[in-house]
Design goal:
single chain, alpha+beta, globular
């Protein structure tokens, strides 16, 4: 068994056992390309369990998140059907496999056309998008204490946990996504705010970057896929009993709660 297979299996086992492992970058010299191959092994093990890919995600796109995690370039990963919950859902930490979750407020893109890099532009993304909606992505790391470098988070499927997408679906051409203001609340108290411009100047710019980055690995965006464009504000820790609510100006609202 290759090293990438071994490390992908270690991440899969950590997910299923709800435990963390030491940073892969502490004991192995890995490139981002190595990390991506590890993530594919991790994904393949989940697909063997019956999970299927329904979209992709970009993370660590905004400066506040980069500063918080000490990772100064975006990561990327896959979304599967078991990771999505209904807007307003109460998510069991134990049943969902979450270990050390943090909440991100962001904008989700639903594609109506295929896209594949290289050469995808912001306008290409806007033209290929059927609708956008507010989204809570609950990021989670299988790496102990979130002590991650870019290789660790890419290998760990971009530190993705679960997500919910708001019920209101909006034509992205009907408003200025860069100026869209998000307000997030945790248990009724203000917990973060940000603008669409926080992610690479415009959320569609981040989606274009992801299309081009995955295109270099031969991975296309497909019509009907969801693309998560990155957090508009610093990550907020979540635990059992917490409830999060978020509004994005012009896009609507969504919420998520947690139980043990």
């Amino acid at each position: 068994m290759s090293l990438t297979e071994q490390l992908g299996d270690a991440l899969y086992d950590a997910l299923r056992a709800r435990r963390t492992i030491a940073p892969l970058s502490d004991t192995h010299e890995l490139t981002v390309e190595d990390a991506y191959r590890i993530s594919l092994r991790f994904l393949a093990r989940r697909e063997q369990d019956g999970e299927r890919v329904i979209g992709k995600k970009i993370g660590v796109t905004s400066k506040p998140v980069q500063d918080m995690l000490g990772v100064h370039q975006p990561d990327f990963g896959f979304l599967t059907n078991t990771m999505q919950y209904d807007d307003g859902a109460s998510v069991s930490l134990s049943r969902s496999g979450l270990i050390q979750p943090r909440a991100e407020g962001e904008i989700a893109f639903m594609l109506k056309k295929d896209l594949q890099g290289p050469g995808v532009t912001r306008q290409d993304v806007m033209d290929a998008t059927e609708w956008v909606a507010p989204c809570f992505e609950i990021v989670d790391s299988r790496i102990h204490d979130w002590k991650i470098k870019i290789q660790d988070t890419v290998a760990d499927n971009a530190s993705c946990g679960v997500f919910v997408v708001g019920r209101q679906h909006t034509d992205p051409r009907s408003l200025d996504l860069a100026a869209a203001a998000m307000q997030m609340r945790k248990n009724g108290a203000a917990a973060g705010s940000g603008l669409g411009s926080a992610v690479q100047g415009h959320p569609a710019e981040a989606v274009a970057w992801l299309a081009n980055t995955l295109g270099a690995f031969g991975i296309p965006f497909k019509a009907g896929e969801l693309i998560l464009s990155g957090s508009l504000a610093p990550l907020v820790p979540a635990q059992a009993g917490d409830r999060f609510h978020m509004t994005i100006e012009g896009l609507g609202e969504c919420s998520i709660a947690f139980t043990e």
